[in-house]
């Protein structure tokens, strides 16, 4: 393994951390509706649990209403029950085959709670990136100890990894600020 391999591995892992953080942010609902909020809701379909998106068409009717159109007739009640029993606090209403899921407006108190949740998720993502930095620096130190690289290369790799860490943490901060602004927008 070389210094370039360590840096490349660090970049890939930190990109994965950011993707995981973005995925986590999509689960945190704002006042607006978006179809992705139902991604983690599972419905029973022929004896196995599957995401709603695999058994129905999920789309937006307007800014505050999600529509769910089941692909099979008998699934409507199961989907409606799964949405109601999820921890999202949503109350679906069926109109024939179509299920309407109105998004309740957020209270000011709930908005503040959600910003705290976003900040905590951001902090967790930063900790993950810092752990990756520590691992990369330890690999470089081990290479130095085994006399595979000179001291200058080890020091330079530490500086490069720190720059990448700073860039990644700045991106996480930007995502946190964007999500907070989205939540606090009335």
Key attributes of the depicted protein:
4-stranded antiparallel sheet, 4 helices, Topoisomerase I, Chain A, domain 4, 186 residues, protein biosynthesis, alpha+beta, Gyrase A, domain 2, 6 strands, 2 domains, two-stranded antiparallel sheet, Ribosome_recyc_fac, RRF_sf, 16% strand
Describe this structure in words.
The chain is an alpha+beta fold and about 190 residues long. It has 2 domains: about 5-25 and about 105-185, Ribosome-recycling factor (Topoisomerase I, Chain A, domain 4, Orthogonal Bundle); about 35-100, Gyrase A, domain 2 (2-Layer Sandwich), CATH 3.30.1360.40. It is about 60% helix and about 15% strand. It has 4 helices and 6 strands. The chain has helices spanning about 5-25, 75-85, 110-145, 150-185; strands at about 40-45, 50, 55-60, 65-70, 95, 100. The strands form 2 sheets. The chain has a 4-stranded antiparallel sheet. The radius of gyration is 22 Å and the shape is elongated.
How would you summarize this macromolecular structure in one to three sentences?
The protein is of the alpha+beta class.
Q: How many individual β-strands?
A: 6
Radius of gyration: 22 Å
Question: Which architecture name of the largest domain does CATH use?
Answer: Orthogonal Bundle
Individual helix count: 4
Q: What can be said about the biggest beta sheet?
A: 4 strands, antiparallel
The CATH class name of the largest domain reads Mainly Alpha
Q: Order of SSEs, N→C?
A: HEEEEHEEHH
Count of individual domains: 2
Low-confidence stretches: none
Mean pLDDT: 87
Query: What is the CATH superfamily label of the largest domain?
Result: Ribosome-recycling factor
Shape: elongated
Give the class from helix and strand content and strand pairing.
alpha+beta
Spatial order of the strands forming the largest sheet: 3-4-6-5
- The name of the CATH topology of the largest domain is Topoisomerase I, Chain A, domain 4
Beta-strand proportion: 15-25%
Helix percentage range: 55-70%
- Amino-to-carboxy terminus distance: 52 Å
Pfam family, one: RRF
Function: Responsible for the release of ribosomes from messenger RNA at the termination of protein biosynthesis. May increase the efficiency of translation by recycling ribosomes from one round of translation to another.
Subcellular location: Cytoplasm
Domain Ribosome recycling factor: 21-184
């Amino acid at each position: 393994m070389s210094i370039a391999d360590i840096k490349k591995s660090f970049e890939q892992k930190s990109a994965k951390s950011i993707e995981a953080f973005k995925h986590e942010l999509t689960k945190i609902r704002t006042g607006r509706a978006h179809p992705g909020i139902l991604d983690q809701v599972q419905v029973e379909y022929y004896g196995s649990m599957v995401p709603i998106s695999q058994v129905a068409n999920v789309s937006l009717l307007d800014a505050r209403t999600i529509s769910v159109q089941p692909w099979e007739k008998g699934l409507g009640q199961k989907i409606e029950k799964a949405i109601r029993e999820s921890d999202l606090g949503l109350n679906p209403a069926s109109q024939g085959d179509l299920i309407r899921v109105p998004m309740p407006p957020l209270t000011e108190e709930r908005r503040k709670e959600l910003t705290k949740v976003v900040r905590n998720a951001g902090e967790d993502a930063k900790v993950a990136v810092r752990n990756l930095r520590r691992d990369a620096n330890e690999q470089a130190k081990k290479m130095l100890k085994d006399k595979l690289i000179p001291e200058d290369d080890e020091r330079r790799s530490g500086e490069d990894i720190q720059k990448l860490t700073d860039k990644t943490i700045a991106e996480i901060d930007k995502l946190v600020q964007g999500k907070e602004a989205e939540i606090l927008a009335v």
